[in-house]
Design brief:
The chain is built from four helices and four strands. Helices cover about 50% and strands about 15% of the residues. Strand 1 and strand 2 form a beta hairpin. It is elongated and about 90 Å long. The chain folds into two domains: about 45 residues, no CATH class; about 100 residues, no CATH class. The longest helix has about 35 residues. The protein is of the alpha+beta class. It has a four-stranded antiparallel beta sheet with strand order 1-2-3-4, with no helix packed on it.
Length: about 160
């Protein structure tokens, strides 16, 4: 318990306790001075996450951003896959936009199974490199997520006791 005096002369007592979820509960009791006509006691509780909980929250946030980017990219690649499979006209604005948007991301995979013909109108082409690209991008995202977990330091007991 720590007694502190603020600028109004009120004594504040602060206590740190743990609740059942392992979070730190900071409790502050503020008393008015004895010489005032009315005596007032305020009690405020604030639940503060532990360092491990903060670490987990930050890792989840990074994972969400990482997987969001990969989901958007693979959705565009999947749309391209179906446009080529169904023989969409590459001269239409939407198809041209999708092809130009996804081509840079598919460039490393396009020659994987031999020469893949360019998308043409009314010709159904099964572009297997698109599916391989989707799988590889999800694999890269999974590896990056594991690296984030390993790289983000775990709080040790010495750091935890100092922070509280």
């Amino acid at each position: 318990m720590v007694n502190e005096y603020n600028h109004s002369g009120r004594a504040a007592q602060k206590e740190n306790e743990y609740n059942s979820s392992g979070r730190v509960v900071q409790e502050e009791v503020v008393h008015t001075p004895e010489d005032r006509a009315e005596r007032r006691v305020e009690r405020q509780e604030k639940v503060v996450p532990t360092l491990e909980q903060k670490r987990q929250r930050n890792i989840r946030r990074i994972h969400r951003v990482l997987y969001f980017i990969v989901h958007v990219l693979t959705i565009f690649i999947a749309i391209r896959f179906f446009l080529v499979l169904l023989g969409a006209d590459p001269q239409t604005p939407f198809a041209a936009f999708m092809y130009s948007l996804t081509t840079p991301f598919l460039a490393p995979f396009l020659g994987l199974f031999g020469n893949t013909p360019p998308p043409t109108y009314d010709q159904n082409i099964f572009e297997a490199p698109d599916l391989v690209a989707i799988a590889i991008y999800y694999l890269f995202a999974w590896i990056a997520a594991r690296i984030v977990v390993l790289a983000y330091p775990r709080p040790n007991s010495h750091t935890t006791s100092q922070a509280q």
